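dude i think i finally got it to work??
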Amino acid sequence: MKKLAANAFRVKLYNKLMGFAAALQNIPAKITPPPFRLMQIGSLFWQSRALYVAAKLGLADAIGDAEKSTAEIAAALQLHEDHLYRLMRMLGAMGIFEETAPRVFKNSRTSAYLRQDNPQNVRAMILMHNSPEMARSWMEPLEDCLRDGDVPFAKCNGADLFGFMDQNKSFDLLFSEAMDAVANVTGNLFLEDFNWGGFERIIDVGGSKGSKSIAILESCPNLKAVVFDRPQIIEAAKNHWNGKIAADVLARIEFQAGDMLESLPAAESDNDLYVFIAILHGLSDAECVKVLNNLKAAVGAKRPYILFADMVAEETHINPSTAAFDMQMLIATRGRERTLTEWKRLLESTGFEIVDIMNVRTFAKFIVAQPRTGHRA
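look at this
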């Protein structure tokens, strides 16, 4: 078996620090009287809506590097000054902006990540998760869907998430930008925790514009990549990187359009690596089986490695972050955050076996699989 893990000490330290951070976050829940804790949770949407409006209006952009009064900001954005002040005062109390004098604000370390001129901004993520399409799915049909098992997003918007994106280019673009912004939340350090150099080619399934593949190829000069995604995503990706990355890196990338529910790029050798980063959690078990059967056909008689970067949910006493992601999957898709038991059942039923589960420096794990010994397509 190939040596796949890297940076073991850093990964171990990261996981210890994340465990400590989670313990700190749980302190308020433990010391706040239950009635007050319930009231806090029940009104959290006030904060998310305030943040959404600030991001949508571009308040952080309007402030820029200066200190500005709400009168100046209101004049620039054609807003009601007193309403704006009260919104910004609330956001200031939350640590989003910093009030330096009465009705005067500047950007804080936090609001800096709402600025569109900040390449590390998460604005698209805030806008997508709080968009009318997503917010209504949480607010309106969830109770009914708990009775009938339907998908709230589909009930609200008339189509499932990916079908809706195919029909609505503006939401599709916002979703794509939000997915690109995930790297600004998690960073790309986790990519350093895997021995990519042990392979000749990666097939990045659902790779969007290919930012992850590019980060990997920049550190592995002998590696090639296929970025595989929906036709409209690939069409935009083909010209996206021109002049932005080194020509030798771009020359090693092939952009390929397709539908993973229909087929996947064929394996060329045992030294290929199929990569699914946060893909299967958005699919139902039946859809996963389709993808994995297509993967089995693409692999043929070869035995490449397959890497799934996804959460592994605890069997009991689930981590709060994992539980929250799982509920978002319930709201928008028929996917889920799967336990190790569920991952094994899914992969083994389609002719694959897990050969390693790796901790890396992000909230997901690297689940490494191969076709079962003696497997034939």
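The mean pLDDT is 92.
im so relieved honestly
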